Amino acid sequence: MFTKTPRKPNSALRKVAKVRLVNSRIISVYIPGEGHNISRFSDILVTGRRIRDLPGVKYGALRGKFDLSSVNGKKNGRSKYGCKREKLDYEPVNKKKRNRKFRNRFYYKIFSRMFLLAVFNKLNKVDQQKYWMKCFFLF
Fold it and tell me: Can you give the residue ranges of every domain in the chain?
């Protein structure tokens, strides 16, 4: 484990680890996020990830896999740091179900039209009788 300073316009102490792979190659791996729990003989999962401002570092460690823990308290960008989504404490309010039956909407439409037509006398007497008969027939 050691820290490395980035290239010219940036300044920080980036956390880097020298890792021996299964095929016995030794590479330097960037550890993303704030804080970590890696010690000397920890197992980590490595991914190909170029860190642009660290020369010679072409790999990154995956948080939340094997011995490398995830970052605590992340709300956004959780997938990069291995965080699970927090469970909600409250229960959703059960709303009253609305009456969405087709038949009821159909009757409501018919009677509202009939009422408006009857009120404004848009229909002559023959048509009014036909419409009222249709409405009573449907019931």
Answer: 1-73, 102-138
Residues 6 or more apart whose CB falls under 8 angstroms from that of 37 comprise 67, 68, 69
Give the other-Cβ count within 10 Å of 2's Cβ: 10
pLDDT in tens, 32-83: 988 898 999 999 999 999 999 999 999 999 998 999 999 988 888 888 888 8
Q: What is the pLDDT, as a whole number, of residue 86?
A: 82
Beta pairing partners, 27: 19
Question: How is domain 1-73 classified at the CATH fold level?
Answer: OB fold (Dihydrolipoamide Acetyltransferase, E2P) (2.40.50)
**Rounded mean pLDDT of the chain?**
82
Name the residue among 97, 96, 60, 95 with its Cα closest to residue 80: 60
Alpha-carbon gap, residue 25 to 21, rounded angstroms: 5
Amino acid at 94: N
